[in-house]
Amino acid sequence: MAEAAPVVIAADDGVNAAIASLAAIDRSALLPQVGGAVDQLAGELADLRLSTATASRAVQLIPPMMGIDGPRDYLVLVQNNAEPRALGGIVGSVLVLRAEEGSIELVEQVAGNSISFDEPVGDLTDSETAIFGSQLGRFMLNVTSTPDFPRAAQLASDMWIAERGETPAGVLSLDPVALAGLLGATGPVTTEAGLTLTADGAAQYLLNQIYLDEPDPAQQDVFFADAAASIFSALSGGSGDAQAAVSSLVQSSDQGRLMLWSSDPVEQSLLDGTQLAGEVPEVGSTPVVGVYLNDGSGAKIGYYLEVATSLAVSECRPDGSQRLRLKVDLTSAVPDLATLPAYLTGGGAFVPEGTIQTNLSVFGPSGGRILGVSGPEGEMPVLTQRQGDSPVSLITVTLNPSESMQLELELVTGKQVDGVPTLRTTPGPRATVQTIEPGCAATS
User: Which branch of life, at top level (predicted)?
Assistant: First the structure.
């Protein structure tokens, strides 16, 4: 791949140059049949650019990140969606992977709750502290409270440096659903404890069944890390179907379950804008709305939270902005409390036992506004902050077993933001039901 890099990069540059040349042609001066041919070629080149751009980034990123120029150590944050955080879940365990000359080796694993500080590591902004609390910079468990993965990864790296004095080359994050997908490629694996994990059952076991089977939290942490390490060992050892593994990783990236950050600014610039980067997008013609969950129950009861979201354009405004209506439906599917251990339910430490408390951070479109929030009893008073150019409404929802709640928010985008809306949500134990209607540009 390293040897092929110059050719692949040159091919991508050539495609971009051809696209620029075609864009400079005045179509009005051409005969219809010639103009049609130019348009067709432009479309074909645009499609080709998707492939050449991806290939160009890959050949520039993969060889150095795989240690072709020397060994590199990466942190792997394994998130636990049973206790939700904006990016997925708390950091249940941290693995250290070493890449050298194209091979990957697991060299260490620690529990996520083993790394904490009395004061925030790194400088949190005022808005970060207001929205996520100082815990964002104090506990490895909570770096995923922010929906911006590059920020979460930087904080995780800073914590590792402060704790160990070692600088990671980058940070990778994934969750048990992504790990279960990899088992579809590697086949079942057996942990050191002797438990066999399969593609069909791994996510449910790691996110729920382990808390029913093992009452000791310390042993739960050990098992969680052991399971993740066993899957990585199978993958790095070449077990299973490589093409199926790649397909699984692509799907996990599309779902926001797999993210990657590099401490090298040049490499990170190549990741920027890709699905793997996990960024909170800045302003553009496409309005992006985010619905992010942070658990307030202090338990693993988030496994039973069901989420559905819908985003629709309610008005196309003269200044090119769009008025949007966001609906968020939350339902507690908590079963009979008599069957659930206290560690899973929280034992009443923060909220009544069996209650799911969720702190929602709704990010409006960059450059836009959140006009109002309503619930079952009408308009709700909410705390509103700003994160960069995005308005953020903070809403706490408390659900008893079998209870549901629908929230409705009215938002407006910035001017000349008429593209199809995009909705980002926290990836949970199961897929979030999501509905999006076309934007103003698509209906004009």
Answer: Bacteria
Q: Predicted confidence band at 51 (pLDDT cuts at 50, 70, 90)?
A: low
Instruction: Quickly state the pLDDT bin for 233 (edges 50, 70, 90).
Output: confident
What gap in Å lies between CA 138 and CA 124, rounded to an integer? 10
The DSSP symbol for 416 reads T
Its sign, for the CA torsion 127, 131, 134, 139, is negative
CB-CB contact of 52 with 221 (8 Å): no
CA atoms within 13 A on the CB side of 431: 7
The torsion angles phi and psi of 382, rounded to 5 degrees, stand at -130, 155
Task: Match 């995009």 to its residue by tokens.
Answer: 422
Which residues, 6+ apart, have CB-to-CB distance to 390 below 8 Å?
280, 290, 363, 364, 365, 366, 368
pLDDT at 324: 96
Whether this model's pTM surpasses 0.85: yes
Could you tell me if 186 and 231 are in contact, meaning their C-beta atoms sit under 8 angstroms apart? yes
